[in-house]
């Protein structure tokens, strides 16, 4: 099977559907037509730029350039994690916890997959590294953001119970154990649901893309299975690291609950 190349005219036809969606939003007074059009324009610009950058990377296989690309991806993902929290950590912690957790989990799992499982030579081949890292960062980012948001919100709501446990002689680890467990569970639910419904309810993006590109369906299914296992491991490890660091940050060296280290994302919250 040969790949069918898309022309600008083909994409223009598809964009008419987005314009139709915006028109329906305007007609039904949903108030999201502007956001739909801006999101469509942003995705067009971003994906075209990434396509041009990847074309250069694929032609050179330069480790410094690939490292710079990976650093940009991690920086943006760290910012998105911070932005998705209703109550954020003050100072550099608001950005650092998410970015550090993603670096420890997504980068480690990607390196393991490239060197041990797939066996790419050299391991930084951009056509393998960038897509794998992108999928791991995207999914790990969502899991960490959900877990941290759940941790800070529940710690705020349960501050009386946490302080009561501290007064009873418990350690910070004991006092926040239940909140931490719920936060971790929240962060892992999306990837668990994705694995449980893959193939029956939906065909994941990577498998769909490979089939459209002409790969045998069984090979596409194997690669999708590999990616889902890697994403599950990356999301789990990243969420655990973020929740542990985040929960430790909520207490000082004298085992006191320090919710003053959190700041509301906006005045209304």
TrEMBL record:
InterPro entries: UPF0014_fam. Its main location: membrane. Coiled coil: none annotated. It comes from the Bacteria. One of its GO terms (cellular component) is plasma membrane. Pfam families: UPF0014. It is a multi-pass membrane protein. It is found in: Membrane. The chain crosses the membrane at residues 6-24, 63-81, 93-118, 130-151, 188-213, 225-246. Keywords: Membrane, Transmembrane, Transmembrane helix. Belongs to the UPF0014 family. This is Putative ABC transport system permease protein. It comes from Thiocapsa rosea.
